[in-house]
Amino acid sequence: MKHYNNYFRNQNKEMRISTLFLFVLITPLLAFTSLHKYYISVTQINYIQEKQSVQITSRIFIDDFENLLRERYDEKITLAGKDEPEIANTYVEKYLKNKVTIKINNESVDVNFIGKEYDGDIMRCYLEVENIKNINTIEITNQVLFDLYDEQQNIVKTKIYSKQKSMILSNQNSTMVLNFN
C-alpha cells in the first residue's frame, strides 16, 4: 500500500509541475492575444431602384468612433450614453460626409446623413443618396477611421441591380469601382 501512496504522491507532484509549466507558458500568449484588437467596420450599400435611392448603413464600433471624435472634436465626448451631447450627431455627420464619398456615373453625389442608433457595442449610421435614376458605374471611397488606426479595415458590401459584391478597403486601397454596363 505504501508503494501505491508514493506512486500517487509522485504522480500528483508531476501533475502540479506540468500544470504550473503550462500556466507559465500559456499565460503570456493569452495576454498577448487579448491585447490585440481588430479595427473593422462594415458598410452595406443598396440601390433601391423604385425609390431612386442609394441607401447606406455603416456599422462601426462605438469605442473606436468615440476615440476618433475625442481626438478630432471634443476630448470629453461620450457616445451611446444618456449624457450624449446633441452635438454628437453634428460631429458624426461631418466626419462621415468627409470620409465616405460616392461617385455615380463619374459624378460626385451628395451623401445625406439620416441618423444613427446603437446596438450593443455597435453604432449604426444611416446615409442616403437621393434622385438616382440609374447606375452605370459607382465609385465608393470609405476612409472611416483610417486617420486614427493604421490597421483599420472597412468591409463594403453592395447590392445594386440584384448583383452583390463586396470588398475589404484598407488605408492603402480605400476605393472600389463597380461597372454595370
Task: Give the gist of this structure.
The protein is of the alpha+beta class. It contains three helices and ten strands; from the N terminus they run αββααββββββββ. It is globular.
How many strands in all? 10
How many domains comprise the coordinates? 2
Cα Rg: 25 Å
Q: Assess the beta-strand content as a share of residues.
A: 35-45%
Structural class: alpha+beta
Strand order of the largest sheet: 5-6-2-1-8-9
Largest pleated sheet: 6 strands, mixed
Helix content percent band = 25-40%
In the predicted model, the low-confidence regions spanning at least 5 consecutive residues are: 2-11, 29-36
> What is the number of helical segments per DSSP (H or I, 4+ residues)?
3
Set down the secondary structure blueprint.
Blueprint: H1 2-35, E1 40-48, E2 53-61, H2 62-72, H3 87-99, E3 100-104, E4 107-108, E5 112-119, E6 122-130, E7 137-142, E8 153-160, E9 163-169, E10 175-179
Parallel strand pairs: 1-8
Antiparallel strand pairs: 1-2, 2-6, 3-4, 3-7, 5-6, 7-10, 8-9
Organism: Litoribaculum gwangyangense
Protein name: Peptidase E
InterPro entries: DUF6702 (IPR046525)
